[in-house]
Amino acid sequence: MNYKKIAILTGGFFGICAIVAVTGKPGIKTIALSSLISFPVIVGANISADKRCRRQETLAEASVQQTVAEKQQLQNTLSQLQLSHKSLIDSLTNLEQESAALSEQLNNTAEENKTLKQSNLEMSMKLQVLAEEKRKIEVDLHNRISDLEAQVQEFTANFESAVDEQVNIETQEFIDEQLENLENKYRQTIIDGEVIHSKAMELALKFRDWALRAKKLQVKREEFIKGLTGRYHDQLEAVTTPYKEAIDGYIKQVEILQEKVARLQQRLAGDLTEPVYFQESCAIPTQISNAIAKVIWEQLHIPLAVKGVAGNPNGEMGAGYGYSRSTPVESLISDLSCNSDVICQSVGIHKILSVKKYPLADLIVVSFRRDPEPPASIETIYKQGLIPARDFCSVVEKSLDHKRGGKPTLRVMAATGEGKGIVLKNLLAHYASLEGWELWLSDPVDGSDEDYWDTPKIATNSSESARGYQLLAQLHRTRHSSKQPGFTDKNVLAVFDEFDKKHSDDDKELAKSLMTDIRHTRIRQILVGQCAEVGRNRWAWDDMKSCSLLVLGNSIGTLCKHLSKDLGWTVRKANKVKRQYEVFSEWAKTVNVKNSEIPQENQTRIGLLVSGDEFNFLELPIPHKGVVTSGFSSFRETLNISVSNKENIELVNARETPTYDSVYYQKLGIATGAETTTYEDIQPLPTETDRAGHVGVSAKPGKGGLGSCKKHPEQIFPLSKDGRGTCKTCGRRLPKSQIEKIQ
């Protein structure tokens, strides 16, 4: 801030303080006078400190400029030394060149050569001396620059702290001096002010006492008004209560009269006001018809008049009911049909068969069945289209054969406990009895409490299952591209359990690409899932058109919802499937209720097989008891591949080293089970006697080895990882305590 601005601000402030000192109150005058006295001192001290600061700042700037000049001078000296050093280096180079020339010209003169060497040595010493001097100058210059920078920083810090300290000291001294002068000068004024303050406090205390008395009077006034109002309300209520009771009584009487008038009007119009029951009778049909009318009145508030009831020999009964003329018949029939389940549950009958209008009178006829209808004979059900359990495996086999209208991929969908394992184990046993098949079973949840396979497995966990599917895809590519049989020349049926949950989306995309292509490479695959809502498991309904579908249990109803919408079937055909499903599922339920003593695993179940535009309802077979092992066809029990017996014998006959398959499959990225196959590894083909076995006869070691039943030592069977196995004579899976392990 320059001095002109300081002068303007000082003059303005003095003028304001002078006006206040002349015209203000005593207290304000005191403050104004103290400000007039202290302000010039503060301004003077500030100006004096500012001048000292500027003087010290000028000295510091001069010192810094001098330091910078010295630094520049030293830098110039350094530059000159660098130039001298460069010139000396150039001179040295020239001398070396001259020395070389003289050496070539005077190489026969030893004395001159010695002189030149001595001169060369002296020049080198001079160069070393110059280099040492240069290094000392650089070090000295660097140290001096560092000292100057440290001095500048120290001076700057000391200068700022000294200025602040001096200003604070002088300001505090001036304030103390002025306060002491003012206290001596205005002591009497302060005493007068204290007297005035004490009088003001007395007045404030008197005002507070008056306010308290006024508040007490106000409270008493409010209490008086509240008491007066309460007595008024009590007297008013005593007068109005009888009046209100009388009015309510009159209103109720009017409502009763209006209801009576409405009922009389309904009777005149032919309407019912409440149910009219049939005459009391001990006959059960009459009691049921009356109970139906009562439930309809209680649940739907529809009055009906029971006119009669009749029955026929097959157990069906029909009850006739009259209804109000103002009630629409179609609406009444619709309401009763929609609530038929509630009515049956309340009355305790099995089922309401139909609700329809009687054509000869104003009646509706409710047909019902008291007890469940006896199940149709199994011959009748088979005539209606259900395929017997004995033909189940052959029908499924046909659905996997594209030459007979099937598709090479089968999707099995059902919830837990609806029979997936039962049908698949029967299907594996069926294929094991056929010629020329190699069977693969992948079970990612091997060893669980629900593991009833008792079958050799190619994979027993999720990672092995994924590798197994990649191996299947590689076999397809080998057969398709190179027209070679691959590591097996048999037809392959691969069953992958828990495919929806235990396989990745990449495996599912691969499965979509293989669904129809594998028909050219003699491969069949069965992919097992748990839900017919295919979208939940990253499938699409268009994918389902490329494979056959086997749906079990309640999942059939789910599939029926998608037949026309997603699979493109006509509504008429989809409704036909739904009607057959209702008939067959009701029959199975009735049979199971009638034969409730049979084990759950042997209960009657049905499945729906869809292949393209064709569908079949199948009766599921009962569980296959015992171990399923290799028969006419064989089970693959490992992911490792090796040269087959047939290929080995062909190689022996051709007198070739049988290493081709191992190297070939290693190039394809498939791990082989052993190193190079040699002549000693070749085993003969199985004889006709060996191939004469059937399902359950062969006893190849399982993952836990071989074992025998302690009760039936002649029964030898493979053991799983947990040491358990199945004895065919006992007909069940034995714990480890009942098994004798064979070493």
CATH class of the largest domain: Alpha Beta
Cα distance spanning the termini: 108 Å
Number of strands: 18
The CATH architecture of the largest domain would be: 3-Layer(aba) Sandwich
CATH superfamily of the largest domain: P-loop containing nucleotide triphosphate hydrolases
Instruction: Please tell me the total number of domains.
Output: 6
Strand content: 5-15%
Kindly report the spatial arrangement of strands forming the biggest sheet: 5-12-11-10-6-9-8-7-13
Mean pLDDT score = 77
- Output the CATH topology of the largest domain: Rossmann fold
Cα Rg: 57 Å
* Tally of contiguous helical segments: 19
Structural class: alpha/beta
User: Could you estimate the helical fraction of the residues in percent?
Assistant: 55-70%
Question: Would you write up a description of this structure?
Answer:
The two termini are 108 Å apart. Strands 5-12-11-10-6-9-8-7-13 form a nine-stranded mixed β-sheet, with helices on both faces. Strands 1-2-4-3 form a four-stranded antiparallel β-sheet, with helices on one face. Helix content is 55%, strand content 12%. It is of the alpha/beta class and 743 residues long. The longest helix is centred in the N-terminal third of the chain and has 83 residues, at 187-269. The protein folds into six domains: 3-185, Four Helix Bundle (Hemerythrin (Met), subunit A), CATH 1.20.120; 198-263; 284-369, 2-Layer Sandwich (Threonyl-tRNA Synthetase, Chain A, domain 2); 407-635, P-loop containing nucleotide triphosphate hydrolases (Rossmann fold), CATH 3.40.50; 640-685, no CATH class; 699-743, no CATH class.
